[in-house]
Amino acid sequence: MATIYDVAKRAGVSAATVSRVVNGLATVDAELAARVHRAASELDYRPNAVARNLRRSKTTLWAVIISDIGNPFFTSMVRGVEDVAQRAGFSVVLCNSDEDPAKESTYVAAALAEKMAGVIISPSGNAATVNRLIQARIPVVLIDRELPGVSADTVLVDNEHGAETATAHLLDAGCRRIACITGPRKVSTAMRRLRGYQRALKAHGIAANTDLVRHADFREEGGYAAMASLLDSGARPDGVFATNNLMTIGAVECLVDRGIPVPAEIAVVGFDDIPWAHLVRPSLSTVAQPTYELGRTAALMLSERITEPSRATSAVTLHTQLKVRDSSVRG
Amino acid sequence: MATIYDVAKRAGVSAATVSRVVNGLATVDAELAARVHRAASELDYRPNAVARNLRRSKTTLWAVIISDIGNPFFTSMVRGVEDVAQRAGFSVVLCNSDEDPAKESTYVAAALAEKMAGVIISPSGNAATVNRLIQARIPVVLIDRELPGVSADTVLVDNEHGAETATAHLLDAGCRRIACITGPRKVSTAMRRLRGYQRALKAHGIAANTDLVRHADFREEGGYAAMASLLDSGARPDGVFATNNLMTIGAVECLVDRGIPVPAEIAVVGFDDIPWAHLVRPSLSTVAQPTYELGRTAALMLSERITEPSRATSAVTLHTQLKVRDSSVRG
DNA sequence: CTGAAAGCGCTAACAT
DNA sequence: ATGTTAGCGCTTTCAG
User: Fold this and answer.
1) pLDDT lower than 50: segments of chain A
2) Smallest CA–C1' distance to C2, residue
């Protein structure tokens, strides 16, 4: 592989001049510039990004740390990040933590060692992990999930409001014993959506009943198991609010397997859309999130923080929208 | 951020010794090693991977270049890659080319500039792009798709056989006018699966009819449009074989929208599973691929090539399996 | 406007 | 077994 010195020699200039031409920085004599360009293309010269990164002590890589690459929510989000990143000249390293704090910590260590230009993270671990990035002055944006004890730019959706709307919709549909299948206690979205659900019940004068709440793992299997557990408990619900897309699928699968008609016996609303939701029978009512926009927004915030590291952190909340389909409409 | 010299000074040794301790390479006196470890942890020293990469002139990053991050086929494959990569000490940069040769070329350029340790690519461009990697002696594994003119390790599935089986199954179900919705002509899987379809027809003594073949884009919308075009053409098929998962979804959506009963009037078989296929009505018959294994295998091959760059290239073919569900069973 | 030279942080000969 | 030294390829003062 040709180096900058090979090009310099061939063009009859110094390496510094080649560097200037390649980076279009300083003003270089047109004649010399032309010679450099020719030499570079003749040698098929490609700047060594590693050397450049070392010298500049920064890279052109972003890490996006998500908790489940199998969840279309995250892939759609990543797409939004990528589109902005590419336009801004960054590449995206996608890291899948699988909801495992240890894996997450490994990826954070890698981002640190590789001197990544920035990190977008949907944390599944604790504040300390993310704070290592902040202490190292690596720009960070929290996406989808908050983390107490971490002060960073944040992009969220209106989780409580979305959950409240979904639950209210089930109440309107006549449900009175509404269960909630939510995620792990330490994940902010799980708790916020649970709170929205509780608030809707309260507003309707219905007492909260912890027998109707399950904490699962945000995965299909977890949703399935939680639904089974609800059915097997003495008090069968007449409506279910599941706080993410995969658990909604799991819950419905369980109901289908047991031959329980949805929505006739149990109505279901989920949080976050799934692809081809309209092909699924019954089609699923969900609180739709602007997934792509979530990623886009986070990426824009990260860009801005990179160019202006000292600005105050901010939080953006995007809006969800209830999409009523068959799984919650009786009659 | 502390450097290796800071640690050396604090531990009262040379930088070389610190390096040896950190990398566990040479044998270092236990006493010194202990001092180094203590100094390192006191200073919260983290090796600068960029400097290391420059010095060793290689990195610890793999690029995985896929054509559609929205397709669960690829995300599942990536998961397989990641699991192997992480165990082998590599991080994975996921690059989404969106089936666009220009984007793909940009990512290849980045892999080259960043001196990535290896690349796993499902090519949507031409051989020249991939050959740039090979010329630069970057280990490459082709996954899912072959590319004429590129000699590299390859992992595929038995595309023709799978397609033939799927088509034969439609013939067995009584279909006689079977259409094929396949992908772009320059993508090997599209052509191989088309060939398998044709072979099955021929074996049944049915003449190939190009009016029943459509080349779409491997996306949902493409499958929908192709199905619409087939219906609007004079000769309506009684069976459809779609050569990937998203186009199968699109085709079925079109049939549902037009009120055409599946499988009663038109039977459908797809290639590659979709998540929650059993919740979709009608549930979709598909040729299932070992997606995770595909990624795993590619990653293992890449590991091996990295450790042994001069070994002969090889090709692995994994097996598909027809899963018969409702969309192709009449009665 | 251009070149010489220093050095980013680390590793690997080489020397001791 | 440990230290000294010389770069990896690039950018960026600093001189000229």
Assistant:
1) none
2) A17
